[in-house]
Amino acid sequence: MKVVIGLALAALLAACGSMAGLKPAKGVAMPVAPYGARATPTTAQLLTPSNQARPARSDELLTDSEKRRSDEFDLPPSH
Questions:
Q1: Which of 2, 32, 54, 57, CA to CA, is 20 to 30 A from 44?
Q2: For 14, which DSSP code?
Q3: Which helix (H) or strand (E) holds 15?
């Protein structure tokens, strides 16, 4: 019974999200343009992460793999 109530509660919480576009609250203006910018960024531009915030991976580990060379210090333990 608790599982059914939990699932129903989760479904209700998931259904209460808004599907409309984001807009500033009434009486509140959008943020001012950043210093040096020519125009105020739109909502979509503010929500899109920059390359610095989400960098792309620049190396592929599997293509750079190579065989290990022997290690002269990898000796068995001494008594």
A1: 57
A2: H
A3: helix 2-15
